[in-house]
Amino acid sequence: QKDPDYLKLWLDSFVSSYEQFLDVDFEKLPTRVDDIPPGISLLPDNILQVLRLQLLQCVQKMSDGLEEQQQALSLLLVKFFIILCRNLANVEEIGMCSYINHVITMTTLYIQQLKSKTKEKEVADQTPIEEFVRHALAFCESLYDPYRNWRQRIAGRFLSTVEKSRQKYKPASLTVEFVPFFYQCFQESEHLKESLKCCLLHLFGAIVAGGQRNALQAVSPATMEVLMRVLADCDSWNDRNPEEVSRKAELTLKCLTEVVHILLTSSSDQRQVETSTILENYFKLLNSDHSALPNPRRCRQWESRFIALQVQMLNTITAMLDCTDRPVLQAIFLNSNCFEHLIRLLQNCKVLQGHLDCLAVSTIQALTAVMHKSPAAKEVFKERIGYAHIYEVLKSLGQPSRELLEELMNMAVEGDHMAVGLLGISNVQPLLLLIQWLPELESHDLQIFISNWLRRICCINRQSRAACVNANMVIRIIETLHSHSVLHCTCAENLIALLGSLGSQSMGSEELLQLIRLLRTEEPKRAHPYVVPVMRAILAMARKQGMASALQYFNLYHSMAGIAVPSIHKWPGSAFSFNAWLCLDQDQVDPSTTSKSGKRKQLY
């Protein structure tokens, strides 16, 4: 305390000994180190009080400008605290002291100084100040995300609830200074380096991922306003590094995903912001009309950047919905009119074909995510939008790419369309859309590819065939076959074979009549090209290959399906019997449940 030079020497020695714990780069996973820094009880007596006074002196001298020696001391102090917090047993006690408030005060002033220097176009070296800011933000991360949950999330590793519950030490309580500090940093942020903005976003994500209590304190109207403003700013790059701006957008979207997930696990009295409010602002930005912008900003280069941002935002919707409380979040999305917003995005889109494909693919992915395994969401989509409307919208975008058609296949099976044999049909409507689109496809290769896949997926089992028959697919196929002049012969044969398979399941008199009428030609003596394959299909229906089965039956496929009988006291007479044949089809394997305990039907 009486010898500042000795104190600095001791701090230097301590920091040098544990330098491997100074992992201040948010982009890197923390390095595994066998040793840990000492606990507070093993440090010299009163050392924390002495360091607090030293830090306070630095804060008090900030307004007049710190000398080089004091700048070095303040950086050394922050490094010391980071190292100390890497012994997780120290986190709570360090967090309860006033160090963090002093560090935030200094960081606020330094960031303000960096902005003003950029504004005045000064070329002086700002490296020492930037180094302090980066270490200060890493110190905050050490307090509020001691297990580095955010870094693991960024690296693609998701921690389960069980893994989080095993984390012995809790993060320090978030200081009330954080929200004003975060908000202030992003005022006039165009004068702040993109890399420093990314560090600030990393810190926000770390606080939200570190623990629910701090997350709910950090997620406020002010911080949400900042995130939306940062996102909106990602389309005006000016002279900034495109990679850094793209990374900033990606981090902002990851922060918003984390925010939505944390809000889902909280009660209404704990939240400062509702998920519906965030989604409302999110869709408003997603559908913002760039044609209203001044001409200088409406250049082709800006347009491509804005489309890239929209694609990122659409992909984030899928990431948001990848959570344990998916049905709850799906309901919130439905109440936010997400279907209307997504369709409007495609309707209002007037961009280059390459960008258009990316946008359409990502939009279909987002729609699939909202409807995933939710019969209610599918019904809402049919009522509010309708597949006829989405077909017209997609058709207006020009010839579809293979990627777009494959995405519609994924929508039908709610998974990877290539996993035929693993996934059955979850949504038959996209299949009807694909059949209707076949005559419009100029590429014969695409016609053959789509029809071949349809033939396989629709006939994979009794369940799939029944779904297609109930959706009147037979009539849709016959309507498509009327356009035989533009259909490739292989495509037509695939459709007729599919029709035969569905017809063996169920074929009405009206459908049979339409099929026979299909074979009429204007020239009586000239046979229709479909005569032979259609006759084969009719014979296949008549032969009824395979085991004999009932034409009418109960479908107990869904997990909650069953047959209810009246309670015993309502049974007529003295007894009641119920007889039925049971057909046990092989269940489709759902890849998402393969690791979980298996389910089985029970007969009572």
TrEMBL record:
Gene3D superfamilies: Leucine-rich Repeat Variant. The keyword Transcription does not apply. Keywords: WD repeat. The keyword Transmembrane helix does not apply. Residues 298-541 form the Neurobeachin alpha-solenoid region domain. Transmembrane segments: none annotated. It holds the Pfam family Neurobeachin. This is Neurobeachin-like 1. It comes from Mesitornis unicolor. The lineage of its organism: Eukaryota, Metazoa, Chordata, Craniata, Vertebrata.
